[in-house]
Amino acid sequence: MDLKRGVDFIGVSIIYFCHDGKGNFLMAKRNNNTTDEHGRWDIGGGKLEFGDSVENTLRREIIEEYCTDVISFEFLGYRDVHRIHNDKKTHWIGLDFKVLIDPNKVKIGEPNKFDQIGWFTLKNIPENIHSQLPKFFELYKNKI
């Protein structure tokens, strides 16, 4: 049986808002090799794998995607993420984190998934963002 996370059972995703401690945060532009949301800017995330810890997933995913280590992190909260993908209802639980990283070490670690990365502020967020980011920013506007 080939069950799909988020479709046949609830998936858990670790979402990270990486920042430099000076009001700037990192986003990556997704390309056509990602599962969905092609061409959209996103803050970053990865699936929690069976047997792995949340903290290890957070640290590993940031190293893989942005080539930098976590300096510190803060758990912001969680979100129930319901949406339609490929004409199927999906359900994920997003565990949301604010993560301090060293901006001098950042580079694209997965060029097969991301076309570019960039630093932004809450005043200059790109227009073409992941469909779940408006809710993220609304929920955590006083924490990020």
Descriptive notes:
This protein is mainly beta and 144 residues long. The protein has a single domain (11-140), classed as Nucleoside Triphosphate Pyrophosphohydrolase (Alpha-Beta Complex), CATH 3.90.79. Helices cover 15% and strands 40% of the residues. The protein has 2 helices and 7 strands. It has helices spanning 54-66, 133-140; strands at residues 11-19, 25-30, 41-42, 45-47, 70-85, 88-101, 114-120. The protein has a 4-stranded mixed sheet with strand order 4-1-6-5, covered by helices on one side. It has a 3-stranded antiparallel sheet with strand order 3-2-7, with no helix packed on it. The radius of gyration is 15 Å and the shape is globular. The N and C termini lie far apart (41 Å).
